[in-house]
Structures are given as structure tokens and as C-alpha cells.
Write a structure and sequence with these properties.
The protein is an alpha+beta fold and 292 residues long. The chain is 44% helix and 17% strand. A hairpin with a 2-residue loop joins β5 and β6. The longest helix is centred in the C-terminal third of the chain and has 19 residues, at 227-245.
Length: 292
Amino acid sequence: MQNNILREITPLTQSDCFTIFSRVKTEFDFPMHCHEELELNFIMNAKGAKRIVGDHIDEIDDLELVLVGSNLPHVWQTHKCKDKEIREITIQFHKDLFDDKFLRRNQLSFIRNMLEKSARGILFSRQTIEQIKPRLILLNQKQGFDSVLELLSILHDLSISRNMHTLSDATFSNAELSYNSRRIERSIEYMNQNFQKPITLTEVAKLANMTDVSFSRFFRSRTGITFMDSLLEMRLGHASRLLIDTTQSVAEVAYNCGFNNISNFNRLFKKKKGCTPKEFRESYSYGSRVFI
């Protein structure tokens, strides 16, 4: 199923920093796709449309701004949208627009963190969108160096904005997030290698040479979520990938991802994704079925 996702060759050339498309349309008709370039996508007047980014599926509101990382599958579908004047502005820029050494500078730390998170897709808050919207609309009118400076300024302001929300699970998108801690990275690596089997807090805490309580606090302070929530997210990410890439039954997917109870798997999947595993597979297939 994964092979049916369109590998898009964008019109962005190596001679340009970025490209921008601004259009008004009546529906979304482009299929599920991915590309090397990062994409900042602004959508207005499309309440009820469906967004699929990685393994995240949701209906959107009348204002939408999402940063999609390199090679992350994504699509917007008309779904329940009734408006016939959908406004869309898409900005695509090279994944190496920012040199890695440049991003390591202190003043670029927020942009660096945002670009790392974009591997999972980032949804920005309504407040942020309303603040950035006029600048996105006017960006197409700027030329040359001024346009590049304005894009950098927009990305910086987005990177320091509040309430940004990552969309896809890291295990689905193969995102490599930096936690600035070898203990956490070693723990995450162990969980990724053994998610099919029962994993306890105690055994992972031992890898970090910490007590259960200390490791639990340390893990949450570095990742923002609890150890158990992280393990669940990891297993659901792998499950989402199997639902898309294989023809395994839902029960097989559940057992192959460390869930020993199919009812519990269905409940947790729906709570996290907003749909059942079966509905998720059908929605994702719909987004790419043009190429079957």
C-alpha cells in the first residue's frame, strides 16, 4: 500500500531557496504524496476537510497552518467541506536550506527544534495562524533577498509560537528527535527494538542506571510525556505503519505490536487516532487509491 503514495517532484529548483503557490479552488483533488522539500501549508475556508499527515487523521477548521517535514506522506481531502472558495498558500523549501552548522548556533535553536519536529508534521494554533496569515498572503509580493528574509522571519516566529502540536507518531515517520540526553536516546532505542514484547519501567530504568521513580521523572522532563504514554505512542505508530504497508489483519497487527488484547488495542487506537484501526486503513487507502 505504501508504494501507491505519489512521490512528487516539486518545481523547486536547486537555484532557488523556496517556491510559493497561492490559489483559490473548489475542492482538494491532489492524492496522497510526499516529497524531499519541507512544506508550509496555509488553508482558509475549508472547514470539514480531512487532513492526513503521516498516521494522523483529522477534520480541519476554517483556518489551518501545517508544517510538513521531508518525505512525510500527506494529503488534504474535501471530505465534509462545503465551501467553494478554498484559499490555499503552499510554501516549499529545501531540507538543506539551513546548513546544519548554522542551525547549531544558539540564535537558531528554536528553528532547529521546529524543523526536527516537522518530521512528524506540526499544526499551529489558531492564534498563531491569525498573526502570521497577513504575512503569508503578502509573501508572494516580495522578491529576491527580501522574500528570503521574510520567510526566515516567518519561520522564526512560528518556531517560538505557543501551543504548536505534532501530528504523526515518531515511529511512523521515522523521526529522529533529539532529547539532548544519551540516557533517553538509549531508552527510546531499546523500546523501539522491543516494542513487540512486554516492557516494564523497571527494566528500562536499569538501562539508565536510575531508580524507577527517578527515571520516570527524568523521562517526562525530557520528552514531555510519561514512559507508558511514550511506549503506547511507539506501539501505535508501528501499528499504523503495518495497517498501511501490509495486509495483516487488525488482530495480527495488534499482536505484532505488543498488544495482547484486541479489544484493548481497538479502544486505545480509537482514543489516540479518533478512528478504529479498520477506519484508519480505509481512510489512508482512500487517500492513495488513485495509484493502485
